[in-house]
Amino acid sequence: MISVRDLMFGYPGCPPIFQHFNWSAAAGEAWAILGPSGYGKSTLLYLLAGLRPPTAGTIEIDGQPIHRPRPRTGLILQDFGLLPWANCEQNVSLGLRIHGFYGPDGKHAPLDQRPGDLAVRASHWLARLGLTGVRHRYPGQLSGGQRQRTAIARTLALNPDLLLMDEPFASLDAPTRESLQNLTLELRAEQGLTTVVVTHSIEEAAFLGQRILVFGRAIEVVENPGAGGVDYRDQPDYQGMIQVLRGRLAALTDPLSAPAER
Fold first, then answer.
1. Domain match, 212 and 178 both
2. Are residues 171 and 248 in the same domain?
3. No. of H helices and E strands in the chain?
């Protein structure tokens, strides 16, 4: 599904963030990217999304090089990315309307994109994410959890096969955060999604990632095969994984030092 080979990237005037970085993810896998700020977690997500080009190296998804945003890649941001002048239903159908404008051209919309009835498809996801009762409200009238559900519904309405999430639940209260984490697992199983979630939270990484990239002065992969079910928080393996991740973060990060090149 994802193949990153010999990746190099840096911002102008700054030291390189990635130096000859290699990574791969198979279709249907659930990945979390964990680490402190400044180590390139979100940068990697934006590179995968085609929003930033690598300095060198290649990124391929489903065997196709990524030079621009890919129609079947969904991206959900921490600030939700909702249009404040559009109501909940209009925000959910936004991507569908954009796809319809371009048609199935393979660049902006998948070649097998079915036009369908926008209202029907939007209504399906509004109902699935419990938003039918607030469909006519504007983002400023929604709770944080409802705004994030709207962003998720807008993305899933486009039928993605890869879902990238950048700190999606960081600003939410604990009960809402856990509810949306459970929902993410349910939707991944229902839709057969490959998921990559960037997080600062050890607990969130342990719950959502069956494989975890731990970013620090090096990048390590931690296997977490027990994750994937909503009851995982109640399992001894979950608490054990939290301790493993805490130890790996301590070993890979130095709070007195700047991030190293990778």
1. yes
2. yes
3. 8, 10
Residue 21 lies in a domain: no
Range of 117's domain?
83-159
Distance, CA of 174 to CA of 204 (rounded, Å) = 11
Q: Which of 50, 52, 66 is nearest to 5 (CA)?
A: 66
Are the beta carbons of 75 and 164 closer than 8 angstroms? yes
Q: What is the CATH number of the domain that holds 262?
A: 3.40.50.300
If DSSP states are collapsed to H, E and C, what string results for 14-63? CCCCEEEEEEEECCCCEEEEECCCCCCHHHHHHHHCCCCCCCEEEEEECC
Per-residue pLDDT reduced to its tens digit, 178-203: 999 999 999 999 999 999 999 999 99
Whether 256 has a pLDDT exceeding 50, the answer reads: no
Instruction: Give me the number of domains the chain comprises.
Output: 2
Q: What is the pLDDT of residues 93-144, one digit of tens each?
A: 998 888 877 777 788 877 776 656 778 889 999 999 999 999 999 999 999 9
The band of 79, judged by pLDDT with boundaries at 50, 70 and 90, is confident
Residue with tokens 């130096």: 19
Q: How many CB atoms lie within 10 A of CB 173?
A: 12
Q: Where are the extended beta strands (E) located within the chain?
A: 2-9, 18-25, 30-34, 56-61, 64-65, 73-76, 162-166, 194-199, 211-215, 219-223
Same domain, residue pair 137 and 104: yes
Q: Is the pTM of this model over 0.85?
A: yes
Interval 199-217: pLDDT, tens? 999 999 999 999 999 999 8
As a whole number of angstroms, the distance between CA 152 and CA 187 comes to: 10
CA distance 119 to 194: 27
**Residue 167: inside a domain:** yes
